[in-house]
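User: Hey, quick favor. My workstation is busy. Could you predict this chain's structure for me?
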Amino acid sequence: MHVILIPGFWLDASSWSVVTEALENAGHVARSLTLPGLESVDADRSGIGLADHVAAVVQEIDAAGQPVVLVGHSGGSAIAHAAADARPHAVARVIHVDAGPLGDGDAINDQLPAVGDDVPLPPWDLFDDEDLVDLDDQLRADFRARAIPQPRGVAQDPQVLRDERRFDVPTTIVACEFPSSMLLGLVAHGHPAVAELARMRDVQYVDLPTGHWPQMTRPHDLARLVVEAVDAT
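Assistant: No problem, here it is.
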């Protein structure tokens, strides 16, 4: 299977290194992306929006020439969902890591502090306690050293979805900060935060209790779960 991995905010392709190695060892083709504006701290992020990141993933889907699995972490999850909307016939599964499908018209996170065209990694006290579980001082230092500002437009632009065939794309939710039982409860009660997820017709939930960055705090466990989801596709 051809697997395309989409980083969350402030991260480049290298953030998936443990997962890509596990996928390749399992016989899959893994392609981890560095999205536009995330090439370096000094990259030009002016004018880069959510549509540009979605287009970069769609280009990779088209280049694969076969059905793909998309893996998206955090903000990358919204990008994966939009790419599946653009190419529903070519996406065999979307794996959302500590995130879920973002609905039409919603922004990934328009509350993050921006500096010009950049959204830098905020101070840790801006995050909820659940975000930071298992992210010890060394991991925090490593993360901050490698963090690249996110293009402001990617965080603030509204999601654009057009094809209801996206609801038929098999979906896996890797639940980290909050257990899958909580997510299922929100879906059952019609909570607006999971409105798009509630419309997905084939959803598998797996739990990986940790904070918001399991590729840092529990990388090998995350890799195992991703490989299992890809193998089952």
